[in-house]
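[audit] Reproducing an earlier prediction to check determinism. Same input, same settings, fresh worker. If the tokens differ from the archived copy the diff job will pick it up downstream; this log only records the rerun itself.
[audit] input (225 residues):
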Amino acid sequence: MVSRSWINEVLSGSALGPSSPPEWRAWVESRTYIALEAPRTATTRTKAEQLPAPDDMWMMETVHRHFREAPTRFEQFAADMWQAFDSHVASIDVTRPSRDGGRDALGEYRLGPATDPIRLNFALEAKCYAPDGGGLGVKAVSRLISRIKHREFGVFVTTAFISAQAYQEVREDGHPIVFLTGRDLVDIIRRIGIATPGELARYLDGKYPVSNGLTSVVTNSKATG
């Protein structure tokens, strides 16, 4: 703010009078200033930033192939990945397909000290899509947004990526949605100690067996395990 009294002081030849703004005095005396900053704009990740690096694409291809014929089993995998990703996930329960209300899992997120935490509810939706496919659009993301309740947030887990339009709309409209995409899942899988196609296939077959007997056939020839 520029006051009339300072303008009068400037006109009288006293640019550093008692009414001069402190920002102006700091600039004249030391040539220092505090720049005005615009509020941070909504940020989104590109398709390339959401998908695994080319050398890691086999991981999501293996996961997608394993759950392709048993998508409901992917829901438990997605819930486990979210819990492994963030230690503040206090609890998570995968819902029954006939009673999920559009939410594949429900849980609590803990904030604050362990002796006096605040717990937030969240809803999770899981989509096992081909990582080299078209990704998830507005319709898929809107389904989760419409089902999160007041004071809840949503978690969207996919082996693929979120389309630019859907991602942008979520961020611009301020919807409380966390996206875990293919690259995030690769990071989590590596963090739990899985590094080769053989290790990943054995992990999936052992922890998430599919009912029809399908297994994670390893087709990648660049690595063995």
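[audit] rerun output stored. Observation attached for the diff report: Residues 1-37 form one domain.
[audit] end
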